[in-house]
Input
Amino acid sequence: MATAEALGARPHPAPPPAAARAALRRAAPLLPAVAVVALLAVPSAPAGDGTAGSGSVADAASALLVLYCLVRVVRERARPLTRTAALVLGLPVLGVGVAVLSSDDTAAGLAGAARYLQIFVLVPAALLLLVRDRWDFRFLGGSVVALALVQGAIGAVQYLTGTGASYRGENIRAVGTFGPTDVMGMATVVSYGVVLAVGFALGATDGSPRGQRATGLVCAGLLTVPLVLSFSRGAWIATTAAVALQLVLSGPRRAAVAVLTAGAFGVVLVGGLGLGSQLVTDRLGSIAEVADAPDQSVTDRYTMWAAATDMWRTRPVTGVGLKGFPAHRDSHASLALSSGSDTAGAGLGFQRQPLLSPHNMYLLVLSEQGLLGVLTLVGSWAALLVLTLRGQAGAGRIRTARAGHGRPWRAGHLGRGTGADCGLVVTGLLVWQLVDFGYADIGGPSTVLTAVMLGLAAWWALAPGRTGSGSVAT
Output
């Protein structure tokens, strides 16, 4: 967990043994959340072995995390959430509940409801209660960066040794421990790591933990390699959008330095070392060809998007019910849809993976939950983003005012500071997720990490007294 500590905050100076004990005590309440992140490094069970769809060990850990926070709430006998937090995080419950009632398969609907509530309500609410201040935020965020470095290193080795998932007939696609049946898993984790590292680096102040800016930039540069080698167009687009916004919000000087550094790093890796340069160029070019000459994967996606829209037209208010897309797909899809996508490599033989979702979260919600689901679920995300941007603007005003009055940003004052780095991180994460949902939806082991990211966003946007209540030096 070296990266977590590097990007996290340091306690007041103390003798080494005492400092170690203090840091351990400080991090102890976060261990259930860190366990969820760490268990995502456990290799995913191959599809077809009877465990597919049964959840991962990280999902089980997230259930224990929610139970842990529930026990704490009961013991403290205090109202756990503010009215605003309860409203924002509770909105999806309405749409999900109605979708279960309208589902043709009640058992499948209940399973889908459990997944939605886990990702968008329960885990984010648990982290809102668990994270106490910016020290906790940085420590948990640092653990995600550490996971991304591990998964990215495995992915880079897969590319170099030809042991990754199949891509254009070669086993070179970096997928980490997620396997060829979840090719977006490593790309998602690494993208989160890039956004976190960039936010920590750009938002670092004079009073930030020592080495935070340099550590963040180095981690972001290293993670760029496996992100490129994932060959995930959706992850590339979402990461570019998120980092671009972070650069704009951080100010022109820091943005220019970061862009020049990233550009030089990219030239060395892709141009100088030739890391998949031709394949990357072809993949980038395919982004512009999705309308003129789409490949079969893009054709399948367009066909499923049209099918999802057609499902919504049949039941515009409530949709066809949770987990209803697969059952209604064939009756709404055109003949252009293939029977599935081919997967192979990374330790598995050839498999035909069925297409069970439109690979667009907004259309998935629209088709299965109707307008009610879109208004409640997407409305919850929009409220988080608005409150995050408002908090980021407030942090910027406070930072400017303090700088104008000559108040130094010492480590001892950061617990009551603005947390500009945390604001940049959350803004980037939310923008990344909202953009990526245009190309992907929930599913697979990495989905639980989406819940962790939404939990960090919920803390920044909804925690009472967040910008002034930190009492522990960060």
User: Anything to note?
Assistant: The longest helix spans residues 361-404. The chain has a mean pLDDT of 80.
